[in-house]
Design goal:
The chain has helices at residues 2-25, 53-60, 137-142, and strands spanning 30-35, 65-66, 73-83, 90-101, 107-114. The protein is of the alpha+beta class. The protein has a domain at 27-117. The longest helix has 24 residues, at 2-25. The radius of gyration is 31 Å and the shape is flat.
C-alpha cells in the first residue's frame, strides 16, 4: 500500500512537471530570420573599386531587390523578428546593404543601413473620392427595374466576350 502511494505520488509529480514544462514552453519566443542570409561573405565585405557586378553576384548571389528606376543599385535586405504566442511579431534587427555600380559594372559604393536608420510611414486611412453620388440600398434594388431583359444568354456576359460573336 505504501509502495502504491509512493508510485502514484511520483507519477502525479512527473505529470505536474510535464504540464508545467509545456506551459512554460509556450512562453518562449519564436525567432525568425527573413530575407538575405549571408553564408560565406557579408555584403559589407564588398569593396568599392575592387569588386565588379559579376564578383558581387558570385560572392553574395542575387540581390533581394533592384532599384525600380536604376538597375545599377542592388539591395540586400534581411531582418530578424521575435514573436510570442499570441502577440504581434516584434522587429529586432533589420539590415539593408545598398551596392551601387557604375556603367562599367564596377562597384562604386557600399552603404549599410540598420533599423535605427529607418522611419515609420504614416498611412492615410482616407478613401479616394469618386464621381457621382452615393446610392442607398433601395435605389440599388429598384434601379435595375426597366433596364433590360437581364441575362438572356449567360455566355454573352463572360469576361473577354466580344458582342456579336
Amino acid at each position: 500500500m505504501a509502495l502504491r502511494k509512493a508510485v502514484s505520488a511520483a507519477a502525479l509529480s512527473l505529470a505536474g512537471l510535464i504540464v508545467l514544462g509545456a506551459g512554460l514552453s509556450g512562453c518562449a519566443p519564436t525567432i525568425a530570420s527573413n530575407g538575405f542570409q549571408a553564408v560565406d561573405v557579408k555584403p559589407t565585405d564588398i569593396k568599392a573599386g575592387v569588386d565588379s557586378r559579376s564578383s558581387v553576384l558570385s560572392k553574395l548571389g542575387s540581390p533581394s531587390t533592384v532599384a525600380a528606376f536604376d538597375s545599377n543599385t542592388w539591395y540586400y535586405i534581411s531582418q530578424t523578428t521575435e514573436k510570442y504566442t499570441y502577440y504581434k511579431p516584434r522587429l529586432l534587427k533589420r539590415d539593408v546593404v545598398i551596392i551601387t555600380f557604375d556603367k562599367d559594372d564596377k562597384v562604386t559604393g557600399v552603404k549599410s543601413l540598420q533599423l535605427k536608420d529607418g522611419y515609420e510611414i504614416a498611412y492615410a486611412n482616407n478613401e479616394t473620392p469618386t464621381r457621382g453620388r452615393e446610392v442607398n440600398w433601395l435605389e440599388q434594388i429598384l434601379g435595375t427595374i426597366g433596364r433590360g431583359g437581364g441575362m438572356i444568354n449567360p455566355d454573352q456576359n463572360d469576361p473577354g466576350h466580344r458582342p456579336g460573336q
